């Protein structure tokens, strides 16, 4: 994924890391993404929460409407990814903090 980390991506990261107010972040999300993209991204975080809580794929699919493919992708990221979901869950108080590599 190193090829995706461009100067433009770094600018976006700087903006996101600088915004302090949830309403400001939401306004940016509304401008950057479609409603569907916001919902799908939020759904992935919910899937991560449910996986971390030990829920089965079938229960998660029934509760969220996420596909088995999406659930598997999130599960793989939780186990082998760069730690983004774990950091997000730690921010939400649902997972122990993870040190950045």
TrEMBL record:
Pfam families xrefs: Trp_repressor
Signal peptide residues on this chain, from the entry's feature table: none
InterPro entries associated with the record: Trp_repress, Trp_repressor/repl_initiator, TrpR-like_sf, YecD_YerC
MF (Gene Ontology): DNA-binding transcription factor activity; sequence-specific DNA binding
Protein name: TrpR YerC/YecD
Natural source organism: Adlercreutzia muris
């Amino acid at each position: 994924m190193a090829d995706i980390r461009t100067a433009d991506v770094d600018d976006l990261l700087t903006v996101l890391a600088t915004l302090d107010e949830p309403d400001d972040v939401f306004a940016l999300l509304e401008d950057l993404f479609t409603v569907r993209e916001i919902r799908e991204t939020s759904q992935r975080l919910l899937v991560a929460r449910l996986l971390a809580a030990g829920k089965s794929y079938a229960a998660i699919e029934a509760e969220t409407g996420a596909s088995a493919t999406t659930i598997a992708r999130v599960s793989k990221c939780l186990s082998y990814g760069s730690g983004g979901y774990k950091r997000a869950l730690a921010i939400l108080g649902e997972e122990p903090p993870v040190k950045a590599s």
